[in-house]
Amino acid sequence: MKDNNFSEWYNEIIEKAEILDVRYPVKGLYIWLPYGLRIRNNIISIIKQILEAHGHEEVLFPLLIPENLLRKESEHIKGFEEQVYWVTKGGDKELNVKLALRPTSETAIYPIVALWIKSHKDLPLKIYQVVNVFRYETKHTRPLIRLREITTFKEAHTFHKSMEEAEEQVKEAIEIYKKFFDKLAIPYMINRRPDWDKFPGALYTIAFDTIFPDGRTLQIATIHNLGQNFSKPFDIKFEKIDGSFDHVYQTCYGISDRVVASVIAIHGDKDGLVLLPDISPYQIVIVPIIYKDSKKIVLENSMEIYKRLSKKYRVYIDLREDETPGSKFYYWEMKGIPLRIEIGPKDIKENVVTIFRRDTKERLKVENDSIEKFINDLFNDIYNNLRSKAWKRFEEKIVRIYSLNDIKSGCVNEINLCGKDSCGKYLEDKTGLRVLGEAIDKKEHGSCIVCKELTDKIYRIAKSY
Amino acid sequence: MKDNNFSEWYNEIIEKAEILDVRYPVKGLYIWLPYGLRIRNNIISIIKQILEAHGHEEVLFPLLIPENLLRKESEHIKGFEEQVYWVTKGGDKELNVKLALRPTSETAIYPIVALWIKSHKDLPLKIYQVVNVFRYETKHTRPLIRLREITTFKEAHTFHKSMEEAEEQVKEAIEIYKKFFDKLAIPYMINRRPDWDKFPGALYTIAFDTIFPDGRTLQIATIHNLGQNFSKPFDIKFEKIDGSFDHVYQTCYGISDRVVASVIAIHGDKDGLVLLPDISPYQIVIVPIIYKDSKKIVLENSMEIYKRLSKKYRVYIDLREDETPGSKFYYWEMKGIPLRIEIGPKDIKENVVTIFRRDTKERLKVENDSIEKFINDLFNDIYNNLRSKAWKRFEEKIVRIYSLNDIKSGCVNEINLCGKDSCGKYLEDKTGLRVLGEAIDKKEHGSCIVCKELTDKIYRIAKSY
User: Fold this and answer.
1) For residue B322, is pLDDT > 70?
2) Of B23, B34, B62, the CB nearest to A31
3) d(Cα B80, Cα B252) in Å, to the nearest integer?
4) Which of A154, A392, B8, B120 has the most CB atoms less than 10 A away?
5) Any A CB within 8 A of B316 CB
6) Measured distance CA(B210)–CA(B266) in Å, rounded
C-alpha cells in the first residue's frame, strides 16, 4: 500500500504505530503519544548535540510577541501577517497591546540580543532554541507536515561582524544539517529558493528538500542569510576594532516536526515503521518463545539476556501472556523496532539466540557469547542499508529534463533555467509544479528551458507539500 | 546581603549568574539564558527519570484549548477564568471559537483520554507532560516565582478504577516529590490545603511548601485528588470486571519553574549560586595557574586532567588569557560550580591538584592518582552538607505556637486549628498570614487557637509568596 497510496499509508501508520492521536478537536493540532514522542525526543537530542558541538548555546525566549515588535521589520510581518494568531484578551479584559503567538522568533529574540552585543568581542554569537510556534494555516493541514501548532521548532540565530562571516555561517549551517540528515539516513537536495519564495526579511534562503514516496518534495530545513535586514530595524550594533560602529550580519536556520514525518515516510514499509537504532524508543525487543514444559528456563534465560543487553542498549522484553509470539512479532514489526531477539528452548539448548532484523526481515542465529559484538555490527549494517536504499529511491525520482514537454509531475525535474523571475513564474503556471530553486551543488551548460538564454544554472521543479 | 535583603539578592543573582534575562518587554515573561537553561534542563531530567521509574509515560498535548472544553467543568473554569489568555484572531479574521492558552491541561487532555480508556484493563493510566502554560497574573510578577508564561510546567495526570486507587496514587505522588526534592536537597513540609484554597475542581489538594530565606513559604508542588469531578463532565468511563460501567477516578500533580527558584534561593550564599553536582551545568571547573616560566607544563598537565575527568564528569577548563586566576575564582564561585581544580607548577611538582569546594570554601590537596575516587566521595559530601544545612535553616524557621498573640510573621507557625473554614479565615484576617493547611505528617492534642475546640490537627500558617 505504501507505494500505491502513500497518503493513506501515512495516516494509518501515524495512528497504528501510536505516533500521534489526530482526534484533537481543533484543526491542525495533534497529540504526541508516548511512542511517537520518544522518537521525536531522540531526534531532538541528535540535533542538539550537533549544534552544541558547533558552538551553539541553547536559550528559551517567550512565546508571546508584542505587536509593535512583530511589526518592526516590514517584509517579515508582510510574510507572516495572515498566519499570526493574536492574543487579545486576558481574562475578560482587552489587552492594551495585542500579543502574537510566535510564528518564528526573530522579533522576540533580536531586541534582546541588541542588549547583549556591544563589541566585536561578543561576536560571533550562536544561539538556538527548541519551541512550539504557531501558524494560522488556511491550507489543508497534515500531521507533522502542515500544522497550526508546530510543536518541535528548532531555530538557530547567529550574529556576525561581516557579511563574509555570515556567508561562512550559512556554509556551517549546511554542514550541520547534512550531518543531521545523514545521521537520520534522510536523503536531501539543497536548493536556493527563488526570490519570491524566500523567508520574509531574508537576503536569500537555502532549503533542504527531501522526496516523499509519492514523488512530492518536502522542505525539511531552511537556512536564511538575513544580512543587516533585521539588525538595522532592531538596532543590533557592535563596536569594531577601529572604534567605529556597524550593525551585525545575521543568519538563522530551522527544522521542525517534518523531520519526524520524513523518518516515518522514508524508511517505513508496507508492514509499518522501520526505525534506525539511534532514534528507536527501544533498539531491541526480546520475545521469549514459551512452551508449557520449558517456560521456566526460557523466561530465566530471557531475563538474563535482557539484563545483560540493557547495560548497553534500550531493550524491551515482551512478557505479555495473552499474546502469541506471532502477534508480538507483528506488533513490534509495525512499531519498527530494529532488532527482535527470539529465545526458545531450542536456542537455549544450542546456546544461541535468534535475531530478526526489521529492515531486511532476515533471521540469524547468533552465539550467546558474541551477541553484543554482533549487534554493534548489525546496527551499523542496518543504518548503511537504510541509508543506501533511501538514497537509491530518492535518486530514481530525479530526472534530467531538457524540454518543457518532457517534464514529469511525479518526479523532481532538473532543468536549465536562466534565473529570471519571469521564466520561473511562467514555468510554475505552465506545469502546476513548484520551482524549488537553484541546485547549489550542480551546474551544467545548456539553455534556459523557457527563454532559451544560455546558462549553466540547474533548477529543480516538482510537486511539493 | 542574602539574609538582610533576600529579594535584592535574588534579583541580582538571577542576573549575575546568567539564569534569566529579565528585560523582555512584556510583564511576567523572561528569557532563559544558556547557563540557567542547563540547570533547568538537568532538573527536568531528574523528575522525568523518577516519573518514568514510577510508570508514567510522556505525552504532549496542544497549547490551545477551545472555549467549550475549558468551560466544561464549572468549578475549574471559575478558578481560572480571570487568568486565561484568549486567542481571538487568526490573521485579521475573528476565530469562530475562542482558544485559551492552557493555564493547565486538564481540559485539553481529558476529552482525548476519554477515547483511550475503554475497560478496567486500560487502568491505571499515568501520563505526564512538560510544557509552557499561561496565567494572566495581575499580581506582582517575579522571575521563576510568579510568571505569565510558566515555561516549565510538569503536569502528571492519572486515571484509576476506584477511589482507593486514586488515594494510593496521591501517596505515590507524595513519594515521587519527596524523592525529587530530596535529590535537590530542598526541604519541604506537606500541607493539605484548606478547602477555599484547593485546585479548582479538585476534591482536595496536597501541597509541598518550602521556606525561603526571607521566611516566606513557596508552594513548590501540588497534588490533587480529582475524584470523579472531571471524569463525569468529560465522560471518561470504563467497563468494570462485572460488565457495568463507572467513571474513572483521577489525580493530577505538578511542579514548575519554582523548583529552579528554590534551588537558587535555598542553597545560594552571599557569593552567589551554590549548585549541587547533579544539576550544575559543569560539575568541575579547572583553572590552570599560569606563570611565564611554567606555562607550557601547566597547560599540558591541565589539559591531561581535563581530558581524564571529562570521561566521567561535566568539566570546563577556563583557558581565558585576559583574566587572572583570582577573577576566574570569583566568577565560577558566583556561578556556583561545586568544585574547582587549581593546577599550578607547585602542584605538578608534588604530583597533586588543589581542589576547592564551593559549599564550604575549603581547599584540599589531592594526589593525582586518586582524584576520581576523591571527587566521587566529595560529591556525596557536598550533597549531604547542602542538604543538612538547608534542613537546619528550614527547621529554625518553624515555630510551635499556642496563642494568637505569639504568632510570628517571619516564621511558619504550627498551631492547633479545628479545621472549620470560619476559624481559618478568622486567623488569616487577624494575622495577615496565609493558612497553608493541615500538616499531613503531624498531629498533637490541643485546642483550636481560635475557637478553643479540642483537636489534634496541626495547621501551618505563614507569610507566603
Assistant:
1) yes
2) B62
3) 16
4) A154
5) no
6) 9
**Residue A449, Ramachandran bin (φ over 0: left; ψ between -120 and 50: alpha; else beta):** alpha
Nearest of A256, A263, A208, A211 to residue A383 by alpha carbon: A263
Interchain pair A90, B136: CB under 8 A: yes
For A269-323, how does the pLDDT look when each residue is reduced to its tens digit (9 = 90+)?
A: 999 999 999 999 999 999 999 998 999 999 999 999 999 999 999 999 999 999 9
Residue A74: pLDDT band (50, 70, 90) is confident
Contact A424, A198 (CB under 8 A): no
In this predicted structure, the answer to whether residue A193 has a pLDDT above a threshold of 80 is: yes
Query: What's the pLDDT at A76?
Result: 87
Q: What is the pLDDT of residue B3?
A: 74
Decide the pairing of beta strands A85-90 and B85-90: antiparallel
Q: What is the DSSP string of B148-204?
A: SEEEEEEEEEEEESSHHHHHHHHHHHHHHHHHHHHHTT---EEEE--GGGS-TT-SE
Does residue B122 sit at the A interface (CB-CB below 8 Å)?
no
Distant-in-sequence, close-in-space partners of B358: CB < 8 Å, separation ≥ 6 = B274, B275, B333, B336, B337, B338, B339, B340, B382
Question: Is A289 within 8 Å of chain B by CB?
Answer: no
Minimum-distance CB partner of B59 among A31, A134, A149: A31
**pTM to 2 decimals?**
0.97
Three-state DSSP class for residue B222 = strand
* Contact in structure between B90 and A85 (CB atoms under 8 Å): yes
Residue B252's SS3 state is strand
Helix or strand holding residue A146 (H, E): none
- The domain defined by B284-380 carries CATH number 3.40.50.800: yes
For B48, how many CA atoms within 13 A lie in the half-sphere containing its CB? 16
- Is residue B72 within 8 Å of residue B234, measured between CB atoms? yes
Residue A132 has pLDDT above 70, yes or no: yes
* CATH code 3.30.930.10 for B6-267: yes
Q: Which residues of B touch A115 (CB under 8 A)?
A: 21, 23
A370 lies within 8 A of chain B by CB:
no
Q: Could you tell me if A408 lies within 8 Å of chain B, comparing CB atoms?
A: no
- Cβ distance B115 to A30 less than 8 Å, yes or no, reads no
Average pLDDT for B416-441? 96
Whether the CB-CB separation of A284 and A341 falls below 8 Å is answered with yes
Q: How confident is the model over B129-138, as a mean pLDDT?
A: 96
The single-letter DSSP state of residue B322 is: S
User: Which three three-digit cell numbers place residue B86?
Assistant: 484568549
Query: What is the dihedral sign for C-alpha B439, B442, B448, B449?
Result: negative
| Angle of helix B163-183 versus helix B34-53 axis, rounded to 10 | 140
Q: Domain coordinates of chain A in residue numbers?
A: 6-267, 284-378, 398-462
Predicted confidence (pLDDT) at residue A452 exceeds the cutoff of 90: yes
Name which of A21, A59, A87 is nearest B34 (Cβ-Cβ). A59
| Of B26, B61, B82, Cβ closest to residue A62 | B26
Cβ pair A142, A7 in contact under 8 A:
no
Pick from B24, B33, B34: which is nearest to A62 by CB? B24
Among A65, A87, A98, A131, the strongest candidate for a mutation testing the B interface, having the largest count of B CBs within 10 A, is: A87
Q: Using pLDDT thresholds of 50, 70 and 90, give the confidence band for residue A1.
A: low
Cβ within 8 Å, pair A31-B89: no
Q: Taking residues A53-63, report their average pLDDT.
A: 98
Most B-contacting residue of A31, A138, A147 (CB-CB within 10 A), to test interface: A31
pLDDT value at residue B76: 87
- The CATH label, of 3.30.470.20, 3.40.50.720, 3.10.20.80, 3.40.50.800, for the domain at A284-378 is 3.40.50.800
